[in-house]
From TrEMBL:
Enzyme class: transferase
Subunit note: Homodimer.
Cited HAMAP family: TrmD
One Pfam family cited in the UniProt record for this chain: tRNA_m1G_MT
The enzyme's E.C. designation: 2.1.1.228
Name of the molecule in the record: tRNA (guanine-N(1)-)-methyltransferase
Subcellular location: Cytoplasm
Organism name: Lysobacter defluvii IMMIB APB-9 = DSM 18482
Amino acids binding S-adenosyl-L-methionine: G113, I133, G134, D135, Y136, V137, L138
Record field: catalytic activity: guanosine(37) in tRNA + S-adenosyl-L-methionine = N(1)-methylguanosine(37) in tRNA + S-adenosyl-L-homocysteine + H(+)
SUPFAM superfamilies: alpha/beta knot
Function of the molecule: Specifically methylates guanosine-37 in various tRNAs.
Alphabetically ordered keywords of this record: Cytoplasm, Methyltransferase, S-adenosyl-L-methionine, Transferase, tRNA processing
Length: 239
């Protein structure tokens, strides 16, 4: 998969993606990541990428043309259909379903706004969808884009060392993940639950499922409306 990011701060994206699972996915060429700076496509001595908003008001708005040229350059840099996504607090909320959907695409372009955002005509003409990472306003789309890159990178085949760990993650099966423990067994803060030490895989799986169900019920009950639950799950929830 190839992700192109349109950003005034290419180094920020590169740094965010350089470590851990994302860094490994890049090293293993499971993902390629490229940044395009609209300033490189701006005109004039000052290479201006923003201007004051029509109608007055505070802040600046990103100009159509430098962004449009940068997106075009990204489109032409490789073959294949491209999904152009504007990172925006006004977009649909990014979630694990969307991460899975994007992870299955060949090419994605992530457009990062700054200032008051980008000229609406650019959004109308070039953008396929808008994605938000939450109901708060960031100063720019870069951290939001880095979130998408990370969530999508870990879903690429071979990105995780233990292939199972993505399957067990929260939201993969519609539920929150169960609690995890590691050594030592006994600690002043408590003991590891006996079942996890039993070696009985069926009992361990049952315990983990129950913990997932309970956590989801306590913390995010609305997820249970959509999660594919078995009769046994419903029984555990009733208990
Ligand atoms: N005036 C815009 C509004 O209220 O909708 C906010 C602009 S914000 C200061 C600058 C840029 O940060 C946006 O263009 C967008 O790219 C990015 N951004 C801010 N919050 C975001 C969020 N929650 N999710 C994704 N991108 C966000």
């Amino acid at each position: 998969m190839r992700i192109d990011v349109i950003t005034l701060f290419p180094d920020l994206i590169a740094q965010c993606a350089a470590f851990g699972v994302t860094g490994r996915a890049l090293e293993r060429s499971l993902l390629s990541l490229h940044a395009w700076n609209p300033r490189d496509y701006a005109e004039g001595n000052y290479r201006r990428v923003d201007d004051r908003p029509f109608g007055g008001g505070p802040g600046m708005v990103m100009l159509v043309d430098p962004l449009r040229r940068a997106i075009q350059a990204a489109r032409e840099a490789a073959e294949g259909p491209v999904r152009v996504i504007y990172m925006s607090p006004q977009g649909r909320r990014f979630d694990q379903d969307k991460a899975r959907e994007l992870a299955g695409l060949e090419r994605v372009v992530l457009l990062c706004g700054r200032y008051e955002g980008v000229d609406e005509r650019l959004v109308q003409a070039e953008v396929d969808e808008e994605l938000s990472i939450g109901d708060y306003v960031l100063s720019g789309g870069e951290l939001a884009a880095a979130v998408v890159v990370d969530a999508v990178a870990r879903l690429q085949d071979g990105a995780l060392n233990d292939a199972e760990s993505a399957e067990q993650d929260s939201f993969q099966d519609g539920l929150l993940d169960c609690p995890h423990y590691t050594r030592p067994v006994e600690h002043e803060l408590g003991k590891v639950p006996d079942v996890l030490l039993s070696g009985n895989h069926a009992e361990i799986a049952k315990w983990r499922r129950e913990q997932s169900l309970r956590r989801t019920l306590e913390r995010r009950p609305e997820l249970l409306d959509e999660a594919p639950l078995t009769k046994a799950d419903l029984k555990l929830l009733d208990a």
